[in-house]
Amino acid sequence: MLRGLTTIPTNTRIMVFVVLIISAAVGVIVLSFLRHPWTPSGSRRFLEGHRKRTMSKTSALEAPTDGPLKHLGPLEILGSMAKLACTRNMVMLLPVCIYSGLDLCFYVSILGTSIGYTEAFGDLREALVGLNGVFVGVGQIAGGMLFASLGKCAQKHGRDPALVLGGMLSHFLAYYLVYVSLPANSPLLVTSDPTFIKPNPYIAMFCAALLGFGDAAWINQLCALLGTLFLKDAIVAFAYFQFIQCMVCCAAFFYTPYLTLPYQILINIIGCVAGVFGFCMVEWKAATETQKKARIQSIRDKAEIEALLRIVKPKNGHQTESILMERVTEK
C-alpha cells in the first residue's frame, strides 16, 4: 500500500492511528474487567486453583500458599524489590534478566537497522525493516505455543532443556547467520561492504523468526520459574524482572550507534551464556531440593506404614499392608 511513496498520505495516517487507538481502548476495557488477585475473592480463587494444580506434587520451588495475597503500593513494591534483589536465587537469575534486555535491544533496534542500512537488499530495504518486526512476532507466537504445549514435559524433565535447546541454540544460530550475511558496520551507516555470504532477505527474515522463537523460550521459562519461586511475591518478582530488562535495553541503546555488528553479537553471546548458567544453577538447585523432599516424604510414609502394622493385627497381613500402602499413597 505504501510501496514507492515518499510521503504517507493523511488519510492513511488517520486510519492507522484510529485502528491503534481503538485496539488500545479495547485492551483497556478488557483488562478493567479482570479481577485483581489481591482482592479477597480473587485471592481465594487463585490460591485454591494453585492448590488443586499442585495437590499431587510437592515442589521445592513453591512458596506457602496460606493466607490472602497482599496488595502492595508503589513504595512497598520498591522496598520489596530491593530485598528480593539480594536473595540468592534472584542474584543467580540476574544474568537472565540482563540478557533479556540485550536480546530485546538486538531484535528491536540492531537487526532492523542493520537490514535497513545494507545496500545489497536494494529497494527491499525499507520493506524488510517492517517485515523484520513481523517475523519476530511470528517466531514469538510459534515459540509461545510450542513451549506452552510442552508445559507438563518441562515440569517432569526440568526447564533447562527447553531453555538451552529452544532459547540458546536458536539465538546462537541467528547470531551466526546475521554475522555472516550482514556487513560489520551495517548498524552504523549505509554500506555495501562485502560479507561472507551474499545478503539474502529470506535469511534475514529467518534470523528474525529465530530471535523471536528464542525470546519466547527465554521469557516462557523465566516467567514460569519466577512464578513458582516467588509465588506470593510474584508481583514484586516480575516488576524486578521488567525493571532490569528495561534498564539494560535502555543502556544498550546508548552503545549501539558506536559498536560494529560483530562486537554487539559478542556482547549478546556472552550475556546468553551467563544467563543460561544462572538459570540452570537455580533450576538444578531446586530439583535437588525437590528430590530431597521426596526422599524424606518416602521415609515418613514407610515409617507410618510400619507403625500402623504394629498396631493393627489383621487376619490377612498382606492384604492389610497393601491397603495401608494405598492409603499412604493417596495422601
Automatic annotation (TrEMBL):
Pfam families: UNC-93. InterPro entries: Ion_channel_UNC-93 (IPR010291), MFS_trans_sf (IPR036259), UNC-93-like_regulator (IPR051617). It comes from the Eukaryota. It is a multi-pass membrane protein. Coiled coil: none annotated. GO terms for cellular component: membrane. Its main location: membrane. The chain crosses the membrane at residues 12-34, 91-115, 127-150, 162-182, 202-227, 234-255, 261-282. It is found in: Membrane. Signal peptide: none annotated. Keywords: Glycoprotein, Membrane, Transmembrane, Transmembrane helix. Belongs to the unc-93 family. This is UNC93-like protein MFSD11. It comes from Ramazzottius varieornatus. The gene is RvY_12976.
